C-alpha cells in the first residue's frame, strides 16, 4: 500500500515513431525534425524511451509498427502514414490493444482510431496560395499550375486554390503534374513555355517544383513571367523571399516540423496530466519578405 | 543463331526492311506528325532543342544499356547510380572550391570524378555478376537500393546543391552549344555514333551478340564471355558518368528523387528500338529511336489537354507494348 502513495517517477514509457523515409525534400526535413525531437526529448525526460523507424513503402511501415508492438511494448505510437488505406487496419489493431495513437499529416481511412491528430492544412495551403495570387494580380492574368503527385493531398490543395481564385480574372491556362520533383517540373515547364507565348505567373505549389520551373524560365530567356509561387518553406526559397527576389515574392508554409509537434504533444500527454487528445491543425501561413526571417531554419536539410 | 549471323556482316542491308526495322521509324514519324498538328510550336527550334537535350541523359545511358542487354544482361541500378554520382560530384566540387576557385580546372575535376565513379560502379556490378556469378537482376536490384540510400545519406535527406556561382559557371555545359546545337545533343550524337560503330563493326559488338545469344556456344567459339559481360557493365557505368556530367549543370542539385525510374525508361527505349530483351541481338540506332519516341510522347502530352494527365503513364505503356508487338516476327522466326 505504501508503494501506491509514492510518486510515479519509476514508471517508464516507450514511444514508437514511424515515418516515411527521406525520399524527397519535404520528407527529408521531416526526418531531420523527427531525429532532433527524439534526441531532445530523451534528454529532457529520462523515463521516456523513443523508438524511431523510417520506412520506404507502406508494407515496410506496417512491419515497423508490428515490431514496435511485439518487441518494444510501446505505450504510444506516433505515425505519419505512408498511405492511408494500407495503414488503417494495422494502426487500428495497435490502438485496440490500448496503445495511445497519434496520427500525423495524412489521416487514416476510418475515423476515431487516433487519440490525437496533428496535421497541416492542405485546403488552407491552396487557399492562401490562391489569395496571394489574387492580391498580386488584381487585374487578373494567365497562369500555369504544376500539381504534385496525384493524391488526395494534391486534390485538396488544388480545390482550395481554385475556390480562392474563382471570379478573380485569373485564368488557369493549364495544369500538369510535376510530381513534387525538380526534373519533372523542369520538363513540364519547358513544354508550357513552348505552348503559351504569354504567361503572367506560375503556381508551382511546392519549392522543389519551383526550382525546376525557375531553371526552365531562365533557360528560355522569357521575361513575361512576373513571379513563381512555390510552397512548403524550403530554406533556400525562404532566403530568396527574405532577400527581396522579385521572382519569389512569397511562400506558403506546410512545415515538415509538424512531426516535432506531434511527438512532443504525445510525450507531454504521457508524462503529465495535460490533456492532449483531439485535433491540432497547423495553419498554412503566407511568408513575405517582412516575416521570412522567422521561417528560416538554417540547420534543416529542407 | 540467325540473330548472330545477321550482325556479323552487311547482310542486314541486303534484305528488305522488315517490320522490326520499320516499326519504330513509323512510330516516330506518326508522333512528329501528331505533334505538328496539335501545336504550331512543336516543330520550333526551341521545342526540338528542349526535347532532344533532356532526352540526352536517358539516351546516353540507353546506348550503354543496349550493350548490356545484347550481351544477355540487365542493369536496374543506373538511375540510382546517376543520382549517387551527381551527389558525389557536387560534394567534391563544393569541397574543392575554396582551394581551386571557380574555373575550368574544378569543372574538369568534377568530370573526372563522375567518369571514375561511373566506371568503378559499373565494374562492381560486372564483377559480382561475372565472377561471383550472382544473377544480374539481383545484383543490380541490390546496388539500386544501395546507391539510392547513399545519396539520401550524403544529402542528409535533403538536397545537395552545387555552389551557386560555380553552377552559374558550369551551367553552359547543359544550356549552351556550338552552331546552335546544345552540348547534351552533341555528346549524345557522338556516343550514338561510337556505339553504333562498336556494335556493328567491331569484334566486341559481335562478342556481345554471341554471348547474349548462347553463352556456351560463344564460350566454345573462343569468346571470353566473362570479360565481354564485364566490359559492357563498365561501359554502361562510364556512360552513366557522362550523362551525369550533362545532368548536374541543369539544376545544379542532386537529391534522393534524382534519376528515379531512369533505369526503366532506358530499358524501355532499348526494347522499343528493337533490341531483344533476352539478349543476342542489339542495335544502337534503334535505341535512339526508342529514346526519341518516349521523349516526344511526354512532350506532346504536355502540349495538349486532350488526354487527362492522369493517363500519361498509360499512353506511354500502350506505346511500349505496341512497339514490342510490332517486333514479334523476330521472336517467332
Task: Provide a descriptive summary of the structure in words.
- With 302 residues, chain A is α/β, with parallel strands linked by helices.
- Chain A is built from 10 helices and 12 strands.
- In chain A, β6 (141-147), α6 (152-165) and β7 (170-177) form a beta-alpha-beta unit.
- The longest helix of chain A is centred in the first third of the chain and has 20 residues, at 25-44.
- Chain A is elongated.
- The model of chain A is unreliable at 1-8 (pLDDT under 50).
- Chain B is mostly helical and 333 residues long.
- In chain B, strands 1-4 form a two-stranded antiparallel sheet. A two-stranded antiparallel sheet of chain B has the order 2-3.
- Chain B starts with a helix and ends with a helix.
- Mean pLDDT of chain B is 87; it is low at 1-14.
- The interface between A and B is medium-sized, with 38 and 32 residues.
Question: Can you tell me the overall shape of chain B?
Answer: globular
- Beta-strand percent range of chain A: 15-25%
Q: How large is the count of helical segments of chain B?
A: 17
Cα shape of chain A? elongated
Which parts of chain B are unreliable, with pLDDT below 50 for 5 consecutive residues or more? Answer: 1-14
**First-last Cα distance of chain B:** 11 Å
Main sheet attributes: strand count, strand direction, barrel closure of chain B: 2 strands, antiparallel
The arrangement of helices and strands of chain A along the chain is HEHEHEHEEHEHEHEHEHEHEE
Please give the count of helices of chain A. Answer: 10
Based on secondary structure, the structural category of chain B is mainly alpha
Assembly of the depicted chains: heterodimer
Structural class of chain A: alpha/beta
The helix/strand order of chain B is HHHHHHHEHHEEHHHHEHHHH
Low-confidence stretches of chain A: 1-8
Amino acid at each position: 500500500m505504501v508503494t501506491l502513495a509514492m510518486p510515479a517517477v519509476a514508471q517508464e514509457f516507450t514511444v514508437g515513431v514511424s515515418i516515411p523515409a527521406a525520399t524527397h525534400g519535404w520528407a527529408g526535413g521531416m526526418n531531420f525534425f523527427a531525429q532532433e525531437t527524439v534526441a531532445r526529448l530523451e534528454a529532457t525526460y529520462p523515463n521516456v524511451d523513443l523508438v524511431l523507424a523510417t520506412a520506404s513503402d507502406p508494407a515496410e511501415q506496417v512491419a515497423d509498427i508490428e515490431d514496435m508492438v511485439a518487441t518494444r511494448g510501446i505505450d504510444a505510437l506516433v505515425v505519419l502514414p505512408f498511405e492511408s488505406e494500407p495503414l488503417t487496419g494495422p494502426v487500428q489493431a495497435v490502438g485496440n490493444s490500448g496503445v495511445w495513437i497519434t496520427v500525423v499529416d495524412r489521416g487514416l481511412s476510418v475515423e476515431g482510431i487516433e487519440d490525437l491528430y496533428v496535421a497541416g492544412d492542405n485546403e488552407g495551403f491552396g487557399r492562401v496560395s490562391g489569395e496571394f495570387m489574387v492580391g498580386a494580380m488584381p487585374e487578373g492574368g494567365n497562369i500555369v499550375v504544376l500539381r504534385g503527385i496525384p493524391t488526395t493531398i494534391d486534390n485538396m490543395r488544388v480545390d482550395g486554390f481554385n475556390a480562392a481564385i474563382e471570379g478573380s480574372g485569373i485564368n488557369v491556362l493549364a495544369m500538369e503534374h510535376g510530381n513534387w520533383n525538380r526534373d519533372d517540373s523542369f520538363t513540364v515547364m519547358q513544354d508550357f513555355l513552348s505552348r503559351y507565348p504569354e504567361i503572367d505567373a506560375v503556381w508551382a505549389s511546392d519549392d522543389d517544383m519551383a526550382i525546376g520551373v525557375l531553371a526552365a524560365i531562365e533557360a528560355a530567356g522569357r521575361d513575361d513571367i512576373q513571379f513563381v509561387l512555390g510552397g512548403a518553406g524550403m530554406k533556400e526559397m525562404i532566403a530568396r523571399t527574405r532577400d527581396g527576389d522579385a521572382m519569389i515574392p512569397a511562400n506558403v508554409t506546410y512545415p515538415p516540423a509538424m512531426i516535432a509537434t506531434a511527438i512532443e504533444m504525445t510525450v507531454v500527454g504521457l508524462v503529465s496530466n495535460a490533456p492532449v487528445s483531439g485535433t491540432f491543425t497547423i495553419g498554412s501561413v503566407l511568408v513575405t519578405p517582412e516575416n521570412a526571417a522567422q521561417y528560416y531554419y538554417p540547420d534543416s536539410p529542407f | 543463331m540467325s540473330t548472330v549471323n545477321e550482325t556479323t556482316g552487311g547482310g542486314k542491308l541486303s534484305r528488305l526492311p522488315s517490320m522490326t526495322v520499320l516499326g519504330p521509324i513509323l512510330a516516330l514519324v506518326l508522333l512528329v506528325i501528331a505533334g505538328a498538328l496539335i501545336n504550331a510550336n512543336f516543330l520550333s527550334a526551341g521545342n526540338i532543342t528542349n526535347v532532344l537535350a533532356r532526352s540526352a541523359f536517358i539516351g546516353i545511358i540507353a546506348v550503354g544499356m543496349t550493350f548490356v542487354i545484347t550481351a544477355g544482361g540487365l542493369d536496374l541500378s543506373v538511375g540510382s547510380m546517376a543520382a549517387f554520382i551527381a551527389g558525389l560530384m557536387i560534394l567534391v566540387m563544393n569541397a574543392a572550391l575554396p582551394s581551386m576557385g571557380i574555373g575550368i580546372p574544378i569543372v574538369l575535376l568534377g568530370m573526372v570524378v563522375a567518369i571514375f565513379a561511373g566506371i568503378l560502379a559499373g565494374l562492381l556490378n560486372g564483377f559480382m555478376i561475372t565472377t561471383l556469378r550472382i544473377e544480374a537482376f539481383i545484383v543490380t536490384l541490390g546496388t539500386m537500393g544501395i546507391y539510392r540510400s547513399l545519396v539520401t545519406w550524403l544529402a542528409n535527406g535533403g538536397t545537395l546543391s552545387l555552389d551557386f556561382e560555380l553552377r552559374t559557371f558550369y551551367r553552359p555545359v547543359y544550356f549552351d552549344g556550338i552552331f546552335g546545337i546544345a552540348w547534351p545533343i552533341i555528346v549524345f550524337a557522338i556516343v550514338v555514333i561510337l556505339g553504333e560503330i562498336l556494335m556493328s563493326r567491331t569484334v566486341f559488338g559481335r562478342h556481345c551478340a554471341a554471348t547474349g545469344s548462347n553463352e556456351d556456344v560463344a564460350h566454345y567459339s573462343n569468346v571470353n564471355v566473362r570479360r565481354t559481360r564485364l566490359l559492357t557493365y563498365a561501359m554502361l557505368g562510364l556512360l552513366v558518368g557522362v550523362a551525369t556530367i550533362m545532368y548536374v549543370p541543369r539544376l545544379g542539385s542532386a537529391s534522393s528523387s534524382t534519376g528515379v525510374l531512369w533505369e526503366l525508361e532506358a530499358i524501355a527505349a532499348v526494347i522499343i528500338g528493337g533490341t531483344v530483351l533476352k539478349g543476342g541481338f542489339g542495335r544502337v540506332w534503334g535505341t535512339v529511336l526508342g529514346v526519341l519516341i518516349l521523349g516526344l510522347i511526354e512532350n506532346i502530352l504536355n502540349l495538349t489537354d486532350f488526354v487527362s494527365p492522369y493517363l500519361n503513364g498509360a499512353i506511354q505503356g500502350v506505346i511500349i507494348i505496341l512497339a514490342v508487338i510490332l517486333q514479334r516476327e523476330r521472336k517467332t522466326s
